[in-house]
Structure formats: structure tokens, C-alpha cells
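Retro notes, structure queue

What went well: the backlog is down to a handful. What didn't: a couple of records were mislabeled last round, so from now on we paste the full input next to the output in the thread. Example, using DUF1697 domain-containing protein from Croceibacterium salegens:
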Amino acid sequence: MTRYVALLGSINVGGNRLKMADLREALEREDFENVETVVASGNVLFDHDERPSDGLGEKIAYVVRDRFGFDTFAAVRSRDELAASISGNPFAEDGEPKQVHTLFLAEPFDTKAFEDFAAGYAGPERLACAVREIFVDFCGGVADSKLGQAMSKARVGGRATARNINSLRRILDKMG
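Corresponding output:
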């Protein structure tokens, strides 16, 4: 068995209320083992037979849609993949931990298009990307950021769920 984390998008925001105990129970019924949640924002640790993380993400999204009636996606990462996303974040060491985020994407995206967008973006945020993640230092504060609107208007990125570096380190520690 491999230990994974699922980072669900749109959980406990915008009316998509979901008790973590109910989510754990639903996943356990679908052959996910040692299911554990970390804070109430859709971070789920579990063991599963090793398989591509995209397939596990689709399975979790299906369970949430079928059982709870709302659309979500799950960015699933193994322990090593999560560790790589933390070490690969170029702002993790010199940014304010609450402001440094990793946006986990629902699917791979056009990194060249994102790099072009980032080169022309005039906001205060620092930006970088990988194949399945976007790294952001919200040095001007998350609440006042216009980055999401600008990315949506430029049609770069796609569906994503964000976690700050403190949360990611806590999740990684819990993964053992």
C-alpha cells in the first residue's frame, strides 16, 4: 500500500459544506484505507494500492459527486510527490509561510503560456510553475490579490486548489 494525500478543491467554501467524518466514511466504503483528514478544508490522507494519482483523483471526485452532490476535483500526490512540490517551490525559504502557496492543478497545463502570462503580470505576487503546480508568493496578501481574476481572464492555469507552505509541511509530517 502507498500513502497518498488528496487535496480537494472547493470543499467547505461557496456552499460546498462537507463534514470530514462523512468524507472519511464515504472513502472507506470505496476501499481507501487508513483514511485521515487534516483540517476541515479537504485534505485527506489515505492508503491505497499503488496506481496513477490521476485515477485516484477521479475516483475521489466521483465519490464526492455521487455521495454528496457537488462537483470537485482531487489533486492526489504520493508522499514523494508532495515533498517535491514543497522543495520545488522557489518561495518556500524566503517568503512569509502564510503567504507562500502551491496551487495544485486538476490537470497538467501549458507551462509556456503561464510563463508568458507571468512575464506580463503586473501584480505584487511572485510566480513560478511546474507541470502540475503553480507556485505563488502572495507578498501583498492573499485577500487583496487580483491574481486569480487575471489568470482566469488570460485563460491560464485551469482548476486548482491552493495550500500554503505551512499546511503542506504539516500534511507531509502527518504522512510519515
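Agreed that this is the format going forward. Reviewer comment attached to the example: The domain at 82-175 is CATH 3.30.70 (Alpha-Beta Plaits).
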